[in-house]
Amino acid sequence: MAVEGLQKEPQSILVTGGAGFIGTHTVLQLLKEGFRVSVIDNLDNSVEEAVDRVREIAGPELSRNLTFFLGDLRNKEDLEKIFSQTRFDAVIHFAGLKAVGESVAKPMLYYNNNLIGTLNLYEFMTKYGCKKMVFSSSATVYGQPEKIPCVEDFQLKAMNPYGRTKLFLEEIAQDVQKADQEWRIILLRYFNPIGAHESGRIGEDPKGIPNNLMPYIQQVAVGRLPVLNVYGHDYPTKDGSAIRDYIHVMDLADGHIAALRKLFTTEDIGCTAYNLGTGSGTSVLEMVAAFEKASGKKIPFKLCPRRPGDATAVYASTEKAHKELGWRAKYGTEEMCRDQWNWASNNPWGYRPPPQS
Ligand code: NAD
Ligand code: UFG
């Protein structure tokens, strides 16, 4: 029986991949919303400094609710250790490899990491009776959509091994939930996350040459790369460049809080997918112009042939997330570029010190 005046224990969330780009921003919002957070990350594509900076932004009091475990989802001993120490109310599962080109070159690495890691996670969640999960899926599961905006009930397809891991993992989630209705799973299909926390202390820090548009633009702006290659200028769009749905990473982070609340309050959620996008499309050249405006920097670019496998235009239908999660993106491209530049100009080499000249 609940005793009046007695504080309820905060809910405890395991965040896999919580040291990464989207993970750090989400962990910060979780702390601010009063959750207790444990992060497991193998630091394959991140650094512990990012978690330290989350602590710094959150402040000493909220940081007491954050624990970091260096561990790998493929290693069952790591999972046993973390699940036996803490009782979790839900898991947000970000951990995975995400570079499309690398997945084509090293498919086994992607299948091994993304699939085995997730199967192990289900095993330990089941063993320890935690059956609520928010899973990071991607707009990649829409392939080259025949119609836009992309609606959640479109037929899905994968274009490369990375996309296939997301597609398989969505299907595995459906099967797990069908077999045991105690599971509640939300699949979040992110469109193109960019931007950074307004403090400029955390942001995206890709290793090597960036594959994605905004990290590339950012490195041109700070002088790490000489020129942006614009892939495709003959698409049937207003300026010939391809169109995507860019979404501020803080909006995305808030989308995870909305999804968690939905899981906790909806017994019959089953396994349900939601798009997280803004619902509007922006071309590559429009993003270049928006970034130039926000940064005051000229971004030299070269018009190049299309990148194989790229779609002309992809953007989200946002109705379902708005109606059922009560969530909608707040920020536009101006704020996305402003915050991306704030992060870039304060951390031109990301979390690393500048190289010795
Ligand atoms: P990220 O690489 O910054 O973060 C992923 C984190 O997972 C990293 O810190 C990495 O070290 C960790 N990790 C990877 N494999 C692990 C393992 N086996 N055990 C423990 N930790 C492991 O990537 P992100 O941009 O934050 O993306 C998070 C999730 O969202 C990924 O699943 C990604 O596929 C998905 N997603 C990202 C985008 C995007 O454009 N950023 C778009 C759609 C979907
Ligand atoms: N682009 C350039 N130059 C670059 C990089 C990208 O012109 O240097 C163009 C691309 O050709 C594309 C657009 O910018 O037209 C966006 O490209 P990104 O690589 O930033 O993003 P994608 O939409 O291709 O894919 C990203 C992730 C996928 C994910 C998808 C949807 O890489 O993993 O968003 O979430 F599935």
TrEMBL record:
GO cellular component: cytosol
A GO molecular-function annotation: UDP-glucose 4-epimerase activity
Cofactor: NAD(+)
Keyword Hydrolase belongs to the record: no
Entry EC number(s): 5.1.3.-
UniProt entry tagged with the keyword Protein transport: no
Gene3D superfamilies for this protein: NAD(P)-binding Rossmann-like Domain, UDP-galactose 4-epimerase, domain 1
InterPro entries: NAD(P)-bd_dom, NAD(P)-bd_dom_sf, UDP_G4E
Catalyzed reaction equations: UDP-alpha-D-glucose = UDP-alpha-D-galactose
Biological process according to GO: galactose metabolic process
NCBIfam families named among the record's database cross-references: galE, PRK10675.1
Similarity comment text for this entry: Belongs to the NAD(P)-dependent epimerase/dehydratase family.
Protein name, UniProt field: UDP-glucose 4-epimerase
